[in-house]
């Protein structure tokens, strides 16, 4: 049974795509045009009542929320492809800790920056330099903690690439690309080495090549 | 070895406390006064570099982020106390899905409301009725999805109480209590039954009794 991934061409679905590639799980993508409101169509709302992407269908099993989907495949195929959860319950705990930091502290200021720098101007809005500066500073503080952490271990949860690192890929790509804020990464030696390492993985290069998409 | 929980008297730490009680894990609490900035002290920042609560210390293992800690104990003591993760990988997937909904969609508008309704006035700020209304509407839309979901199963991830439900306890208590927004729960039949059921659990009653705290 081939896994169906709905809505591939933006950040959150790419978290799922790169995970499936790392795990060697066969999948197909089902594009959804958010600008045309296809995510608000009644058929789609039956799969995802909030109208968000991604959603997966795997036989008669449906799941949404990108980090929940990534955890599901990392666990279902624990012994296939890259192990993304750590070898022990304690390592898994640290993977979950940094996955939560990504979701709660890293992602929100990037999302806010994206809205102000890229999406706003597309809709004719003038970016507010004060709000941009505030979010850059907020993100910078998070990256300072990462810089210190990555001076002690190669990846966030330890010396192994995990779901915690993987989960940073889509929005960091956006940050250093279309948002033109590469300096936030480049000016931090350990963060920069971490980003160069994980963005060079064949799985991520494939996602960027096949789905250049919105970001 | 008794688990130490730092910073019990606010919402996120209570997510950990109720989980530990459900799992029958012995613990002690280490109070931190956030208003005095004890969470910014160098010793504390060694445990939690962002200066947030909760943090746990379990022997020489340290972990932060409330939902990561809750997952860790739910997995470590899988066969002790209440099973909070589901019986299969598919059930765990649904637990993770609704746990993400709580973290990403339910919690943020309640946090915003808390800042505007309770914390702001404590600091002498006048609440902005427009912003309060916007967040109430945002939260109402999430609760509409819950109402529909809970018409099909007793709890969010299925017919079993899980980490996904448990994770809603602290902020919902705050919402119906100090924030005086009980109508958002009461006016929805299934959400109301769900809240009455889970807030009556001995574990939660114990948390409310022992740590009435800030909220």
From TrEMBL, chains A, B:
<comment type="similarity">
    <text>Belongs to the GST superfamily. Phi family.</text>
</comment>
<feature type="domain" description="GST N-terminal">
    <location>
        <begin position="1"/>
        <end position="81"/>
    </location>
</feature>
<dbReference type="Pfam" id="PF02798">
    <property type="entry name" value="GST_N"/>
</dbReference>
<keyword id="KW-0808">Transferase</keyword>
<keyword id="KW-0216">Detoxification</keyword>
<dbReference type="InterPro" id="IPR036249">
    <property type="entry name" value="Thioredoxin-like_sf"/>
</dbReference>
<dbReference type="InterPro" id="IPR036282">
    <property type="entry name" value="Glutathione-S-Trfase_C_sf"/>
</dbReference>
<protein>
    <recommendedName>
        <fullName>glutathione transferase</fullName>
        <ecNumber>2.5.1.18</ecNumber>
    </recommendedName>
</protein>
<dbReference type="Pfam" id="PF00043">
    <property type="entry name" value="GST_C"/>
</dbReference>
<feature type="domain" description="GST C-terminal">
    <location>
        <begin position="88"/>
        <end position="215"/>
    </location>
</feature>
<dbReference type="InterPro" id="IPR004046">
    <property type="entry name" value="GST_C"/>
</dbReference>
<dbReference type="InterPro" id="IPR010987">
    <property type="entry name" value="Glutathione-S-Trfase_C-like"/>
</dbReference>
<dbReference type="InterPro" id="IPR034347">
    <property type="entry name" value="GST_Phi_C"/>
</dbReference>
<dbReference type="InterPro" id="IPR040079">
    <property type="entry name" value="Glutathione_S-Trfase"/>
</dbReference>
<dbReference type="InterPro" id="IPR004045">
    <property type="entry name" value="Glutathione_S-Trfase_N"/>
</dbReference>
């Amino acid at each position: 049974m081939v896994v169906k991934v709905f809505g591939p061409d933006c950040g959150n679905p790419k978290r799922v795509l790169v995970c499936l590639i790392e795990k060697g799980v066969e999948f197909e993508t089902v594009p959804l045009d958010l600008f045309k409101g296809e995510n608000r169509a009644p058929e789609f709302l039956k799969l995802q009542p909030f109208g968000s992407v991604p959603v997966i269908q795997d036989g008669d099993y449906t799941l949404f929320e990108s980090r929940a989907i990534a955890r599901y495949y990392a666990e279902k195929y624990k012994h296939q492809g890259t192990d993304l959860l750590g070898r022990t319950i304690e390592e898994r705990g640290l993977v979950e800790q940094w996955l939560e930091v990504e979701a709660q502290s890293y992602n929100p200021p990037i999302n806010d920056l994206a809205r102000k720098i890229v999406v706003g101007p597309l809709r004719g809005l003038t970016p507010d330099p004060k709000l941009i500066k505030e979010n850059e500073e907020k993100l910078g503080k998070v990256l300072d903690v990462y810089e210190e952490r990555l001076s002690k271990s190669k990846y966030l949860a330890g010396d192994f690439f995990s779901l915690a690192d993987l989960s940073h890929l889509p929005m960091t790509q956006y940050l250093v690309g279309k948002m033109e804020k590469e300096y936030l990464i480049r000016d931090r030696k350990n963060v920069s080495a971490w980003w160069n390492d994980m963005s060079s993985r064949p799985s991520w290069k494939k996602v960027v090549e096949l789905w250049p998409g919105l970001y």
